[in-house]
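tool_call: predict_structure(chain=1)
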Amino acid sequence: MHVNTRDLPSKDSCPKSGELFSTIVGYNDVKKIFGLSFTSQKPVHILLVGPPASAKTLFMLECMKLERSYFTLGSHSTRSGMLEYLFEKRPRYLIVDEIEHMGIKDQTALLSLMETGILSETKFQKTRNTQLKTWVFATSNGTNRMLTPLLSRFITLHFKQYKFDNFHEVASHMLVHEGVGSELASKIANAVWWKMKSKDIRDCLKIGRLAKSEQDVDWIVDTFKNYR
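tool_result:
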């Protein structure tokens, strides 16, 4: 078996987790775990598990800012050519949202990569192999659909759904970061939680990008509710 190897970035090129995750409120311990993974000499893979709208995806969005990163949805891994991209582009960071929806074939290939650093694919009775030094960061709403050996290769951190105080703080912080005034940001967070009955931070961001006033917020929320 021929294994192709290439030079990899030095440790000095690793990002600082405090700067990378500055838009995320709290979770300082999780940020530190990511920071330790970034600076590890060998890949340390991290899986964030929890219900929708529990900050998991926020971490993945930040990791997408890393140099030589590649993002894929678990349900789209085959269609988007994940294996082809890994062979050709050799990313340092593979980011997978909703990894539990990844097909068994791709899970098996990912297991080999995480366990041995070897990526292998058999196609049209031909096998190709390469060696990569790739960190895998992923999210999952649950782990029942994941291969047990694959799950064991991750450091798994379980997130809980936001309570109102946490939701309000996180949403307001992110909206202000996007340029929304603090009072309007607070109004949006309250409207999404209490009027829309949503716990998804992304709903706050959608409204924050549309609304210019508190009256806009009420109208947009009412419109969203009318078309549910």
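agent: The CA atoms of residues 101 and 172 lie 31 Å apart. Proceeding to next step.
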